[in-house]
């Protein structure tokens, strides 16, 4: 178990580092998808503090559409659902209630439109359709906020595992930099402006 | 460091020379000046004493949980309304300031523009603006200049003297910070447009100074505490000297509820709660309130008594009025090459060619433009704002792809502008909402003057032009057309002036009403400057301390 985690971590790190213009990118999605599948199976056995099992499955699925897993890791690999559980358990009962109410509405829409009871059982396109329709609601605003926050906050809050969020956007979490910081100041120095 | 041992332990029932309320930009300077001059000083600070090692690159903690700035989560709700006709509603991040030793000088960006000579006499030069309290200061730039220089050297400022700078009596102690790509883009564009960009003065050390190290360019200045003490907060630069004096007792976790007066109407006692809720009261010969432009008027209003029915030091009725935020505009451009504006200090160049807008535009205003990262270099905030350009999606695969460029390949050209002082923009006590101590919550009533909004629009448009000239492939910008609903600059609420009927303190920061009470912080400002007030707040504190020391030595307090 630990070995698998470690090797996946090492793989993701090297893969995203090499992702720009490397053929390794071609092999990535399939592996990530299999990771995601094994994670889904695990989720049901894991202990969450405030989220019900149903909420875990549903919010996990929603987060995976907001920041999908494609050529690069998404909300699933970042462990966003763990972040959501942690922060909802930290004085955020009101936000949890917003999510509960919104989820019920979303499930009702899934049943009405697609005759399926749960969001996570829908096809990706159907999921995206429901989320698009929910844009602008407090529910969507809250779940989007928590998903993104879980992807890009410090790993100690439960998400952004292996700092996959930071890597995604080119943010290297370190404490010291030296000029040149980017292309333009490098050029500026070279020209002696 | 023997600082903990050097601290005296003054009995609360014996008068100390001075109680200072607040240890921020002004309070830290005041504590250092008064204690090293030999006076006994108690500093009351509501927050903890966090030091370099306590700070983290923690967006969730600082930006969402408000670990430094505090809000409803910590038991300090605030309310907001645009006008007295509206109901004030509880809102987060109305008046945002750090609750810790050093106050907001710990988490500020450190942009240390001096005010210019014009700022102190602009009402005379421009003429009055009807419906506003636009006024000259009772002091001039020349009177404050020696104290700006004191800030440069004692607090620590990096920059480059030149013809673009206001007059100065001495060089900067540290050279300017190395230029960033975002500022190269700004500088080149500005020059193309015939403007004169120059190195931004910052309260961040570019090299070791006064026993503190130079900046390591981690990028987490704005909203964060410096992890190496290169940022010149009063916590890093002043408080250690105050504690080393052996005359200063710093009491943290102490929330001041009121200032009491004796039968002669003189301030004699400061009442506060310790962290565990125990009430204490420190006797003092004189009281200096340095609690910031929000807390200072709140404390005065809450200190009402039979002798002072409108609140302490408020016979004029202007305590809490004339609140000024500074205006703000932003314009973000996408560039072909990596900019990485998230690295190093917020800004390294500034354009001050529009310091005074041409009166023929038909409105009053002015400001400066600098280049920054659009989310202050913060990954989570960048992603929350993601989908910046055009109709780009704000979630899903394409959103995710865009984030990669948005974070590293953008520069934001930001405008920092004037706010006019208005009687209707106020900090008052909310009759309906209370904080964790049962005190009335701070209620802000604020609507930018139409000229302030026009000025923001001018700077937004100018920044968009600059982005074009810089070669941005896409750009987007904004300013608050409907008026701002909160800020971190808290200015003007106990303004300085010669006339006791329309100002709260005199030119030496002494209350017009209460002889031994001084207010020294952002609340003293008569006008707003151009968006970077802390340099001036610190200079005023050095100057006020000089006069207070002289008054005390002459027995005139």
Largest sheet of chain A: none
Radius of gyration of chain A: 19 Å
Whole-number tally of structural domains of chain A: 1
Query: How many strand segments of chain A?
Result: 0
Task: Describe it.
The complex is a heterodimer of chains A (193) and B (557). Chain A has helices at 2-18, 24-43, 53-66, 75-78, 80-88, 93-114, 124-134, 138-152, 164-169, 183-191. Chain A has one domain. Chain A is elongated, with a radius of gyration of 19 Å. In chain A, α6 packs across α7 and α6 crosses α8. Chain A has 193 residues and is an all-alpha fold. Chain B is 24% helix and 17% strand. Chain B is globular, with a radius of gyration of 22 Å. Chain B starts with a helix and ends with a helix. Chain B has a single domain (11-553), classed as FAD/NAD(P)-binding domain, CATH 3.50.50. Chain B is built from 13 helices and 17 strands. In chain B, strands 1, 2, 6, 7, 8, 9 and 17 form a 7-stranded mixed sheet that branches. In chain B, strands 5-11-12-13-10-16 form a 6-stranded antiparallel sheet. Chain B is α/β, with parallel strands linked by helices and 557 residues long. The chains are: A mainly alpha (193), B alpha/beta (557). Chains A and B meet through α8, α9 and α10 of A and α3, α6, α10 and α11 of B.
């Amino acid at each position: 178990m630990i070995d698998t985690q470690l090797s996946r971590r090492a793989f993701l790190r090297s893969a995203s580092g090499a992702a720009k213009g490397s053929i390794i990118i071609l092999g990535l999605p399939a592996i990530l998808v299999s990771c995601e599948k094994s994670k889904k199976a695990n989720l049901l056995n894991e202990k969450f503090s405030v989220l019900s099992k149903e909420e875990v499955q549903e919010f996990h699925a929603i987060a995976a559409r907001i920041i999908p897993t494609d050529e690069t890791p998404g909300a699933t690999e970042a462990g966003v659902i763990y972040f959501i559980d942690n922060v909802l358990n930290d004085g955020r009962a009101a936000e949890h209630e917003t999510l509960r109410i919104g989820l019920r509405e979303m499930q009702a829409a899934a049943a009405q439109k697609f005759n399926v009871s749960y969001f996570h059982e829908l096809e990706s396109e159907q999921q995206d359709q429901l989320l698009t329709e929910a844009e602008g609601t407090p529910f969507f605003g809250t779940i989007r906020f928590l998903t993104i926050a879980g992807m890009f906050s410090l790993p100690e809050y439960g998400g952004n595992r292996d700092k996959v969020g930071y890597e995604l956007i080119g943010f290297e979490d370190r404490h010291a930099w030296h000029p040149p910081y980017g292309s333009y100041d490098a050029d500026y120095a070279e020209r002696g402006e | 460091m023997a600082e903990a041992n050097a601290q005296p332990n003054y009995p609360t029932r014996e008068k100390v020379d001075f109680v200072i309320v607040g240890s921020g930009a002004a309070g830290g300077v005041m504590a250092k000046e008064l204690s090293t001059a030999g006076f006994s000083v108690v500093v009351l600070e509501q927050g903890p004493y966090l030091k370099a090692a306590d700070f983290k690159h923690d967006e969730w903690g600082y930006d969402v949980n408000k670990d430094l700035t505090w809000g409803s989560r910590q038991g300090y709700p605030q309310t907001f309304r645009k006008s007295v006709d509206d109901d004030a509603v509880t809102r987060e991040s109305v008046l945002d300031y750090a609750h810790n030793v050093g106050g907001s000088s710990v988490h500020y960006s450190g942009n240390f523009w001096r005010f210019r000579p014009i700022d102190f006499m602009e009402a005379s030069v421009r003429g009055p603006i009807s419906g506003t309290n636009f006024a000259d200061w009772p002091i001039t730039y020349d009177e404050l200049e020696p104290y700006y220089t004191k800030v440069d050297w004692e607090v620590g400022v990096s920059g480059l003297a030149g013809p673009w700078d206001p007059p100065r009596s001495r060089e900067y102690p540290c050279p300017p910070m190395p230029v960033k790509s975002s500022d190269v883009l700004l500088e080149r564009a500005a020059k193309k447009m015939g403007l004169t960009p120059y190195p931004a003065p910052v309260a961040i050390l570019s090299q070791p100074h006064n026993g503190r190290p130079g900046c390591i360019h981690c990028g987490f200045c704005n909203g964060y505490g410096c992890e190496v003490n290169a940022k010149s907060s009063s916590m890093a630069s002043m408080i250690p000297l105050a504690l080393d004096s052996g005359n200063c007792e710093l009491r943290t976790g102490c929330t001041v509820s009121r200032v009491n007066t004796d039968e002669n109407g003189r301030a004699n006692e400061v009442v506060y709660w310790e962290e565990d809720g125990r009430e204490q009261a420190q006797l003092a010969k004189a009281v200096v309130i340095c609690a910031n432009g929000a807390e200072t008027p709140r404390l005065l209003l809450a200190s009402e008594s039979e002798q002072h029915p409108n609140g302490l030091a408020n016979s004029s009725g202007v305590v809490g009025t004339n609140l000024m935020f500074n205006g703000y505009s932003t314009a973000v451009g996408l560039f072909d090459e990596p900019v990485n504006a998230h690295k190093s200090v917020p800004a390294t160049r500034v354009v001050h060619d529009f310091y005074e807008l041409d009166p023929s535009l038909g409105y009053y205003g002015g400001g400066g433009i600098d280049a920054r990262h659009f989310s202050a270099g913060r990954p989570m905030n960048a992603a929350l704002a993601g989908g910046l350009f055009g109709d780009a999606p704000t979630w899903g695969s394409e959103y995710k792809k865009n984030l990669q460029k948005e974070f590293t390949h953008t520069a934001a050209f930001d405008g920092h502008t004037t706010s006019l002082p208005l009687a209707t923009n106020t900090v008052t006590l909310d009759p309906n909402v209370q904080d964790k101590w049962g005190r009335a919550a701070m209620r802000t009533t604020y609507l930018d003057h139409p000229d302030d909004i026009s000025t923001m629009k001018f700077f937004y448009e100018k920044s968009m032009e600059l982005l074009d000239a810089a070669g941005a492939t896409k750009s987007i910008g904004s300013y608050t057309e409907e008026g701002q609903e909160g800020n971190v600059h808290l200015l003007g609420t106990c303004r300085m002036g010669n006339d006791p009927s329309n100002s709260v303190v005199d030119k030496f920061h002494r209350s017009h009403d209460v002889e031994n009470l001084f207010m020294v912080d952002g609340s003293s400002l008569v006008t707003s400057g151009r968006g970077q007030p802390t340099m001036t707040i610190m200079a005023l504190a050095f100057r006020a301390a000089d006069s207070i020391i002289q008054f005390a030595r002459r027995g005139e307090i």
